[in-house]
From TrEMBL, chains A, B:
Keyword Hydrolase: yes
A GO MF label: metal ion binding
Residues the record marks as site: Important for catalytic activity: 224
Protein name (database record): Endonuclease/exonuclease/phosphatase family protein
GO biological process: DNA repair
Annotated site residues (Interaction with DNA substrate) in this chain: 254
Keywords from the UniProt entry: Endonuclease, Hydrolase, Magnesium, Manganese, Metal-binding, Nuclease
One Pfam family linked to the record: Exo_endo_phos
Residues the record lists as binding Mg(2+): 8, 36, 152, 154, 253-254
Cofactor binding notes: Probably binds two magnesium or manganese ions per subunit.
Length: 263, 263
DNA sequence: CTTTTTAAG
DNA sequence: CTTAGAAAG
């Protein structure tokens, strides 16, 4: 059984200070897809010493974004960024080809999409990046191989994926135009393992604002995903969001999404 | 007995979080001269509710400098800043005239001089401000009244006022030109109560860097003072720096200088 | 309400 | 090494 976890850590230093290390020791994922690392390369390596293989896309803007892949399996290739010419060093996309124990390959991707704010340029950047992701997803399915794209997409797909969906119909992260991207990806064969193996909902959510009692009230959003190609999806056995009460310690505003694959 | 304390709090919010409130309850000064308040007016007032009279000079630059006077005695006048035309709102000088219980008046000043860095414009600003202070001190002595100027002058007067004096002969805070200002003020009759009542030294120091083990090694500087006019100085009975072991909790990089006056 | 960075000390 | 503010989430 191969365990792949995705987690927006909201600053890996803060996360470890708040107890991420305990979760890691307990869960022991084989592959960890990280978003919002918010640290330089050398610093990330400190948290994953001997035994881990690392891929990391640091953002040019210090302390912002940053995606990483920590893997117990060796990496045969690493690809950083999406698109060309246009800002590729934004710390939002990193891929690694892994060598499975029984032989064969698995491509894992850690993705971090823009949060976006309606009426600001960040929304245009989000859509532009979504277009790049769409193009790359098409390439990744074309080969027919095993691929998982995990990360914080900063979009809730449907009403069951967000507690206060009525109040957020005009909010970034639940706009019809954003959700349509997910519709298209799923229509093209990408499988939403968190939903398929997580029940019909509402929930489980993966993100809660730090403000007020959002977490205690489970007033959250499901914006973290593991999207798998057909070749991989059928091997998925369980999908779990590691939040309270099973995992009580809150070391990020997101909770990890952990999927077990029969590989 | 009237107790006047001066303290560079290095951010009043952080100081209270670290235990300044306990010190205040224990020491119960009648007058508290504050430097580096680093907070807006309204916020300072929150820490000194009913029973306190407040004077406050907030710096224009938010979160920087800021001097205040908190007094159990009523204030008959408040004067903010030094000089005119030139930046007067730098949060470095505030005066209050207090009404003594037995009748009579006492002028108290809270002063915060620039730290300064050799070879930078901040050094010129420090000297320019020192000139303004010299002029104001002359005015304050002219009346022959009781005046105390307390605060962080960011200058150690003599070798006994700094642990590593040899290593700091070319460092801001111990430059001959800076120390000459203190010489002139003392020559003009201002009395250095911390030294007069604190023994011959070396020490006691009032500031230690946060870095390394400066505090544990008592590798400090005496840069906080209570300077009194002749009319007031003879009433001073004790001068104490509230640092470990008597006061163990460190809630600022400075320790308070507390003087008891027989008034 | 939290993150890392910044400038200042 | 710490403070508070800044920008971003």
């Amino acid at each position: 059984m191969l365990t792949i976890a995705t987690a927006n850590v909201n600053g890996i230093r803060a996360a470890f200070k708040r107890g991420m290390g305990g979760w890691l020791d307990d869960r022991k994922p084989d592959v960890l897809l990280l978003q919002e690392v918010r640290a330089p390369d050398a610093l990330l390596a400190d948290f994953f010493p001997a035994g881990w293989h690392l891929a990391h896309s640091e953002a040019e803007a210090k302390g912002r974004a940053g995606v990483g892949i920590a893997s117990r399996l060796p990496m045969s290739a690493i690809r950083i960024g999406l698109g060309q010419g246009v800002p590729t060093n934004t710390g939002r996309w990193v891929e690694a080809d892994l060598e499975l124990p029984e032989g064969g390959a698995l491509t894992v991707v850690s993705a971090y999409l823009h949060s976006g704010t309606v009426g600001t340029p960040s929304m245009d950047e989000k859509y532009a990046f979504l277009d790049l992701v769409s193009a790359r997803l098409a390439e990744l399915t074309a080969g027919g191989g095993r691929v998982v794209v995990g990360g914080d997409l900063n979009i809730a797909h449907a009403a069951v994926d967000i507690k206060n969906w009525k109040g957020n119909l005009k909010a970034a992260g639940f706009l019809p135009a954003e959700r349509a991207y997910l519709d298209r990806w799923f229509g093209a064969g990408w499988r939403d393992l968190g939903r398929e193996l997580g029940g019909d909902g509402p929930g489980p959510y993966t993100w809660w604002s730090w403000r007020g009692k959002a977490f205690d009230n489970d007033s959250g959003w499901r914006i973290d995903y593991q999207l798998a190609t057909a070749a991989l999806a059928d091997a998925a056995r369980t999908a779990t969001v590691d939040r309270a009460p099973a995992y009580d310690q809150r070391w990020s505003d997101h909770a990890p999404l952990v999927v077990e694959y029969d590989l």
